[in-house]
Automatic annotation (TrEMBL):
Name of the protein: Sodium/potassium-transporting ATPase subunit alpha-1
Lineage, uppermost ranks: Eukaryota, Fungi, Dikarya, Ascomycota, Pezizomycotina
GO molecular function, one term: P-type sodium:potassium-exchanging transporter activity
Keywords carried by this UniProt record: Cell membrane, Membrane, Transmembrane, Transmembrane helix
Gene Ontology cellular component list: plasma membrane
Species whose genome carries this gene: Penicillium subrubescens
Length: 230
């Protein structure tokens, strides 16, 4: 997520706010915040971070944008909140396949098809060809809608995979008053992060200051190629 937007779904392990970014050599105050469980997630999600002052944000996150977190504090928070990455969902294939066939009107189609076949034989005296044709159509629709549900699920999984692939591998942060490069998954709540123009933002962020010509590409979120001006 980028800018002052919030995560789209609880499946995202981390929420972020940023306090000390660098865009085109212009200092931008940012601060990254993360959550690793549902209670903390909803607590932070309900907070309007963009309405808080820099001092209030630092106080809530126990952070200092000038020196960053200490190495020990960062290690504690990493252990507490976990890695800054999208957590994979459980993938029970048996239940997924069952859902492809029976969610929505699937069960109704199957029951209807069986009843129509029974009305064809043995109840039909004589068996009506129309009932046979209708039963075949209902079962065909039953199978087709299962295939469509499977295709939708596959498409959604590709979207999530593309979002994961867009996350940067590393980023520049401030620890113990010194800049250092770390793996983006090791960002923790309260980290001060530096981002240059063209760099992918590693977490949900909240801009405190930015240059007047700051633009953000949120096409992965909005589905359009429109670039936001902040």
């Amino acid at each position: 997520m980028i800018g002052q937007t919030k995560s789209l779904a609880p499946r995202l392990t981390y929420d972020g706010i940023v306090l000390n970014l660098t865009l085109d050599a212009i200092q931008v105050n940012t601060l990254v915040i993360a959550s690793a469980n549902a209670s903390v997630y909803h607590e932070w999600q309900s907070t309007d971070w963009h309405t808080l002052s820099v001092e209030e944000v630092q106080k809530q996150l126990s952070a200092d944008v000038m020196s960053g977190l200490s190495t020990n504090r960062a290690a504690e928070r990493l252990k507490q909140y976990g890695l800054n990455k999208i957590s994979p969902l459980p993938n029970p294939w048996l239940w997924k396949i069952f859902g492809y066939f029976f969610k929505g009107f699937g069960s109704i189609l199957l029951i209807g098809g069986i009843l129509v076949f029974i009305s064809w034989k043995p109840l039909g005296q004589p068996p009506a060809v129309a009932n046979l044709a209708l039963g075949i159509v209902l079962l065909a629709v039953f199978v087709i809608q299962a295939g469509f549900n499977a295709w939708q699920d596959w498409s959604s999984s590709r979207v999530m995979a593309s979002i994961t692939a867009m996350l940067p591998e590393s980023c520049l942060i401030l620890r113990d008053g010194l800049r250092s490069e770390v793996v983006s998954t090791e960002i923790v709540p309260g980290d001060t992060v530096f981002i240059k123009s063209g760099t992918k933002i590693p977490a949900d962020v909240r801009f405190i200051e930015a240059s007047h010509d700051l633009t953000i590409d949120r096409s992965i979120v909005t589905g359009t190629f429109y670039v936001d001006t902040r």
